[in-house]
């Protein structure tokens, strides 16, 4: 009751310049009427929820801008590794590919020579091992020099096989592919398969059927968007408040929201822009975040405790004053308050609202509309 009387008195002082009529509440001048202006039924219909005033937390944020970019570990530039002529292109822009799936086929003399060299070295090694085994069986019968020559030939042949295999490894062949059965016809010796290094989509294609490509040319770009980075620019004045691990809320132009953390923070400031850079990671399995997309972000730096904290939805502007509607029986009375710091959801009340008071915390625009309607009708009469 003390809080209600205080609220009524405060609103009366704020409205002395306005004309008062009978025993109605006009321009913030609260009063009693024979019948309640607001009923419990109205409260339920308007889905107004009440809360009891008390302490809470205000989150401090830094608002920044940024851009969605590819996660560097989920982006691959594909080079053919051999020079040759494009004989088949199996994937086009925007198509999905699996890791190891063939993107294109290239006919390459360089590959043919490498595979032939490995085949010759393998045959030579097999033959030299057979001669060595034969000499070992005849040990003590054949000359010692012949045995040593056989051992040396086998060792050199083994080295040649390993060197030939290393060339194939460098061209992207696996051990299983190298030791597997040789191609059925000679034409297969010179066909090189360009494979996707990761699962994703073809983002770029730069080759045409029949053209010559060399090993230094980027012919495909494959990207996986399951995870993307957000590159955030931070002013030099805000750098001191930021560090790795801070929570961040990212908002796209179309309103899409994502929560993340600062994954990497570069504490160096660009000489040209006087801005620092931070990186946040977004899980993007639905593909809603696209590289190149500009975003805004709020980074939570710290928090503060306050004696009285209410939702922003509880605050309404009435006659130029910030007000909270406090509960008085079936009625709600506007109470002038002085506000402090606020975050996305809550606001600190510095004065005008005591602890332990029941107030309307949601859909208070209904109360404001009803209050202003009553006020307008009374002035009209």
List the SSEs and their pairings.
Elements: H1 2-14, H2 40-45, E1 50-52, E2 56-70, E3 75-78, E4 84-89, E5 96-97, E6 102-107, H3 109-137, H4 144-170, H5 175-179, E7 191-195, E8 200-205, E9 212-213, E10 220-223, E11 227-235, E12 247-252, E13 257-266, E14 275-283, E15 294-306, E16 309-311, E17 315-318, E18 321-328, E19 331-336, E20 338-342, E21 346-351, E22 358-360, H6 364-380
Antiparallel strand pairs: 1-22, 2-11, 2-15, 3-10, 4-6, 4-9, 5-8, 6-7, 8-10, 11-14, 12-13, 12-15, 13-14, 16-21, 17-18, 18-19, 20-21
Note the gap between the termini: 31 Å
Structural class based on helices, strands and sheet pairing: alpha+beta
Quick check: average pLDDT?
82
- Please tell me the total number of domains: 3
User: Total strand count, please?
Assistant: 22
CATH class of the largest domain: Mainly Beta
CATH topology term of the largest domain: OB fold (Dihydrolipoamide Acetyltransferase, E2P)
**Using only CA atoms, what is the Rg?**
39 Å
Task: Note the main attributes of this structure.
single chain, 381 residues, alpha+beta, conserved putative lor/sdh protein from methanococcus maripaludis s2 fold, OB fold (Dihydrolipoamide Acetyltransferase, E2P), 3 domains, six-stranded antiparallel beta barrel
């Amino acid at each position: 009751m003390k809080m209600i009387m205080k609220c009524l008195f405060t609103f009366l002082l704020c409205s002395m310049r306005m004309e008062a009529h009978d025993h109605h509440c006009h321009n913030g001048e609260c009063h009693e009427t024979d019948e309640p202006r607001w009923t419990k039924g109205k409260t339920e219909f308007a889905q107004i929820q009440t809360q009891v005033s008390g302490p809470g937390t205000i989150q401090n944020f830094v608002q920044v801008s940024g851009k969605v970019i590819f996660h560097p570990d989920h982006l691959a530039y594909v080079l053919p590794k051999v020079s040759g002529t494009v004989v088949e292109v199996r994937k086009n822009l925007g198509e999905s590919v699996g890791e190891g799936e063939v993107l294109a086929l290239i006919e390459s003399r360089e590959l043919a020579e490498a595979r032939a060299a490995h085949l010759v070295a393998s045959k030579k090694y097999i033959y030299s091992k057979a001669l060595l085994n034969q000499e070992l069986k005849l040990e003590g019968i054949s000359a010692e020099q012949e045995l040593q020559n056989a051992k040396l030939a086998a060792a050199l042949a083994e080295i040649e096989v390993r060197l030939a295999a290393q060339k194939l490894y460098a061209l992207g062949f696996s051990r299983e592919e190298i030791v597997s059965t040789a191609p059925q016809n000679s034409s297969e010796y010179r066909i090189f398969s360009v494979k996707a290094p990761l699962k994703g989509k073809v983002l770029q294609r730069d080759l045409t059927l029949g053209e010559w490509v060399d090993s230094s040319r980027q012919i495909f770009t494959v990207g996986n968007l399951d995870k993307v980075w957000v590159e955030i620019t931070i002013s030099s004045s805000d750098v001191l408040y930021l560090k790795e691990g801070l929570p961040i809320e990212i908002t796209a132009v179309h309103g899409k929201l994502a929560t993340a953390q600062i994954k990497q923070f570069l504490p160096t400031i660009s000489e040209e822009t006087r801005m620092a850079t931070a990186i946040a990671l977004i899980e993007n399995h639905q593909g809603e975040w696209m590289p190149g997309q500009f975003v805004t972000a709020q980074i939570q730096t710290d928090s503060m405790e306050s004696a009285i904290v209410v939702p922003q939805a509880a605050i309404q502007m009435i006659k130029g004053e910030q007000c909270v509607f406090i509960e008085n029986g079936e009625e709600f009375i506007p109470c002038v308050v002085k506000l402090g710091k606020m975050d996305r959801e809550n606001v600190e009340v510095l004065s005008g609202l005591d602890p332990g008071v029941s107030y309307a915390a949601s859909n208070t625009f209904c109360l404001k509309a009803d209050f202003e309607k009553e006020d307008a009708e009374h002035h009209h009469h």
